[in-house]
Specification:
This protein has a domain of about 140 residues: TIM Barrel (Alpha-Beta Barrel), CATH 3.20.20. About 40% of the residues lie in helices and about 15% in strands. It contains eight helices and eight strands. Helix 2 packs across helix 3. The chain is globular and about 40 Å long. The model has no long low-confidence stretch (mean pLDDT about 95).
Length: about 210
């Protein structure tokens, strides 16, 4: 499977910090109805079996809406549940090792912050890159900032799709216009929204405007 640029347009990254009135699967379905084009399941607290069962439910939802489903970091679980792909950071398993484990049939996303990291990830078999934090973010306190100029250089240096992440919402998404990104990865502006579906519709329209579609 190779990454389609249109799948990067509005990339939802889950965070159960906002689970309350709705379960995480219910929140994800609202996001899918609102037009997200990719879903990454990020879990740091669940035990392996609960994570696996949740992943199966998320995969079912994503299949229903014909949207790629990826797992953050946990390569073994991504393979086991039949996810469409896996996303790893610089401190996770090496991208080349991940590619050797998942084969050519699954998507591989890699988080990068520099042109050097971007080129290394592309050479190791990454299908797309996540670049950030492009704005200050409350969901990942240790995230280092990436300037818009650095983002522009990364986009120009690689042939694979690039998605921006970090503090992105309706109020600043258009500031990324002209950087070359193919879309945005969003956490709190989706899952922290009062009306997730409506928020996603607005974010989708802005993301299309940002990339010139």
């Amino acid at each position: 499977m190779r990454c389609q640029r249109e799948n990067m347009l509005l990339y939802a990254v889950t965070d159960r910090a906002w689970v309350g009135k709705q379960s995480l699967p219910e929140q994800v379905e609202c996001a899918l109805r609102g037009g997200v084009t990719c879903v990454q399941l990020r879990e740091k607290q669940l035990d392996e079996q609960a994570f696996f069962q949740e992943a199966l439910e998320m995969k079912r939802l994503c299949r229903k809406y014909h949207v790629p489903f990826l797992i953050d970091d946990n390569v073994e679980l991504a393979i086991r549940c039949g996810a469409d792909g896996v996303h790893v950071g610089q401190s996770d398993m090496n991208a080349g090792k991940v590619r050797s484990l998942i084969g050519d049939g699954m998507l591989l996303g890699v988080s990068v912050q520099t042109v050097e990291q971007a080129l290394a990830a592309q050479d190791a078999g990454a299908d797309y890159l996540g670049v950030g934090a492009v704005f200050a973010t409350s969901t990942k306190q240790d995230a280092e900032a990436v300037s818009h100029e650095a983002l522009r250089r990364i986009c120009a240096a690689v042939q694979i799709p690039v998605v921006a992440i970090g503090g992105i919402g309706q109020g600043n998404i258009l500031e990324l216009s002209g950087t070359g990104v193919d879309g945005v990865a969003v956490v709190s502006a989706i899952f922290g929204a009062e009306d997730i579906e409506s928020s996603c519709r607005a974010l989708s329209a802005l993301s299309r405007k940002m990339v010139g579609k």
